[in-house]
Specification:
By secondary structure, this protein is an alpha+beta fold. It has helices at residues 3-18, 28-42, 48-54, 66-75, 81-91, 102-128, 132-139, 253-260, and strands at 143-148, 155-162, 170-174, 182-186, 191-196, 200-208, 211-220, 226-229, 236-237, 244-245, 248-251, 269-275, 286-294, 306-312, 316-323, 331-333, 338-340, 350-351, 357-364, 367-372, 375-381, 389-397, 400-408, 413-418.
């Protein structure tokens, strides 16, 4: 099979897993959230443009490169693209060879082909025309609203819904862009509750018949700064005393080792969130500044990664830092494009974490600029902003410290903290 046939098969399986309905109706926001989902599942964030090419929404004559294909395969749980192809090949039915003379069977086969084409044509014509039940499912009025029960973490959310008009026994409630956070609920019910362990701006979806029937926003805020050791299925929250260091916000290696019962922090993320309303602050005009470092020793965290997020209602800007020898693994997201350290030299984002690092980045006139220790290291155009800014997230692999943070735009300062 050609590469495109495998891609078409992959796309169908991804759509079945996502359960977002007809991909022809997917919005830019859906592709943005899919890009975030790739980052969480594979460690690589494919750009929105790349995803649109995969789905045929953007014309592109060439096949995706090997790194992109491997990322697609990992998204579905395969080791790489070759493993995905081998799995698909193994599923193909084996057709026995026809030993009958082609000349003797030409007329019957041709007639059978004509009959088959006619049958397929009739089937397609019938299937294109929606039946009354499908029309009722598509047009039925649906109520779907959310209400938080607290202003703290974790936060249970009450969903009030009315899907009684839908001609189906059960529907799906999806908490956010991640389909793994979905629950089957009764279409005859009126309420359902879900728990949110992390802060952020989420779009919950009510899905029936494979299509999104209604969406409602869920905005989980923090009271100032929240420190969270991220793990599944339930994270560990850090107390105010545990994240208060001498002249810094962060977590020490001692506290982290006690909390996790392990002296090694590889692939152990600890995030610091400040999620709130920043009225008047938009992703098309902002500047973020911070002084920080990963305080882990190399024996505790080999690459000592840091990821700095400015969170918007539509997506995020993500700036990575790491030990100099690990820049190949970095991935940067501009709000519209992913820049992969496997394909781009991101050595300017490598750090000596014996010293604090001064990071500054922002968007102005649809360009993202990044400065590290007063050196200009990135200037990239963007095609869309992250929308209204709703928060900051700083994620350390292991222990880390933040001395100060400033968030502003051309007109005013929204956050200015020195710890």
């Amino acid at each position: 099979m050609g590469t495109q046939i495998y891609i078409n098969t992959w796309r169908k399986r991804a759509e079945d897993q996502l359960r977002w309905g007809d991909s022809e109706n997917w919005s830019d926001q859906d592709f943005e959230k899919l890009a975030e989902m790739f980052l969480d599942k594979t460690g690589t964030m494919l750009s929105i443009t790349t995803l649109k090419r995969i789905w045929g929404r953007v014309k592109y004559d060439s096949s995706p490169n090997a790194a992109t294909l491997n990322t697609l395969a990992k998204f579905l749980g395969y080791a790489d693209w070759r493993s995905f192809k081998q799995s698909m090949d193994a599923e193909k039915p084996q057709v026995a060879a026809d030993k009958t003379s082609p000349q003797k069977n030409y007329v019957p086969v041709a007639m059978a082909g004509v009959v088959l084409l006619a049958a397929i044509g009739s089937l397609i014509a019938w299937s294109i025309k929606p039946n009354k039940a499908e029309k009722k499912l598509n047009d039925a009025p649906v109520k779907f609203e959310s209400k938080k029960v607290t202003d703290d973490l974790p936060n249970s959310v009450v969903f009030n819904y009315d899907a009684s008009w839908l001609n189906t026994d059960s529907i799906t409630l999806q908490q956010s862009w991640d389909p793994s956070r979905s629950e089957r609920i009764s279409s005859k019910g009126k309420q359902h509750t879900s728990i949110y362990y992390y802060p952020g701006y989420f779009t919950a979806k009510l899905i029936a018949g494979g299509k999104v029937k209604k969406e409602t926003p869920v905005f989980i805020k923090t009271k100032g700064w929240a420190g969270i050791i991220e793990k599944e299925p339930i994270p560990t929250y850090l107390s105010a005393d545990e994240i208060k260091l001498s002249g810094s916000l962060g977590i020490s290696s001692k506290v982290l080792a006690n909390k996790t019962v392990s002296p090694v922090f590889n692939d152990l993320p600890v995030s610091f969130y400040n999620v709130q309303e920043f009225e008047g602050l938009n992703g098309s005009d902002f500047t973020f500044e911070t002084t920080l470092r990963n305080t882990s020793e190399p024996g505790e965290s080999l690459c000592r990664n840091i990821m700095v997020y400015v969170l918007g209602k539509r997506s995020a800007v993500i700036i990575p830092l790491s030990a100099k020898g690990c820049i190949s693994n970095l991935g940067l997201y501009t709000s519209s494009e992913q820049i992969n350290g496997k394909e781009t030299d991101l050595s300017a984002f490598g750090c000596d974490f014996n010293e604090f690092q001064q990071l500054k980045f922002g968007v102005k006139n649809m360009r993202l600029n990044v400065f590290l220790n007063n050196k200009h290291i990135l200037d990239e155009s963007i095609t869309q902003s992250i929308g209204d800014i709703i928060g900051i997230r700083i994620r350390f692999e292991g222990s880390g410290a933040i001395r100060n943070i400033k968030l502003s735009n051309s007109n005013q300062t929204f956050l200015n903290e020195k710890f």
